[in-house]
Structures are given as C-alpha cells and as structure tokens.
Amino acid sequence: MHNLKNETLAVVEPWVKNGLWEAKTISTEHALREVAAVSYLIGRGYHPQHAHQIVESWWHHQ
C-alpha cells in the first residue's frame, strides 16, 4: 500500500505543481479542472505527458 501511495504521488506531482502555478496566473478553478482532467486521462492509461498535451489542447481550441 505504501508503494501505491508513493507511486501515485510521484505521477501526479508535476501536474499539481503546474496547477499551482496556473492557479496564480489564470484561475484556481481552471487549474483544478486541468489537474483533474490530466489525472483522469493518466488513470485511463494515457502517458502523463500525452494526457497533459491533450488537456492543454482543449483550452487552446476554445
């Protein structure tokens, strides 16, 4: 169980940090949505970087 915690936190840490930065520059609501969406896609099996690119593309095409 401890390994699952560490693995999970290690995977999401970059997106949490990115979300904290975006919360300061854009909005907290946007940042939470983005981190949640990236995490969801990672959980669906997408590579973390690809998941982030997908989510970023949604905001740039609005």
What do you see in this structure?
The chain is mainly α and 62 residues long. The protein has one domain (2-60). It is 85% helix and 0% strand. It has three helices and no strands. It has helices at residues 2-25, 28-43, 48-60. Helix 2 (28-43) crosses helix 3. It is globular. The mean pLDDT is 93.
Helix fraction, binned, reads: over 70%
Shape: globular
The count of β-strands is: 0
* Head-to-tail CA distance between termini: 40 Å
Topology:
Layout: H1 2-25, H2 28-43, H3 48-60
Helix pairs in contact: 1-2, 2-3
Structural features:
62 residues; mainly alpha; globular
Briefly characterize the structure.
This protein has helices spanning 2-25, 28-43, 48-60. By secondary structure, it is mainly α.
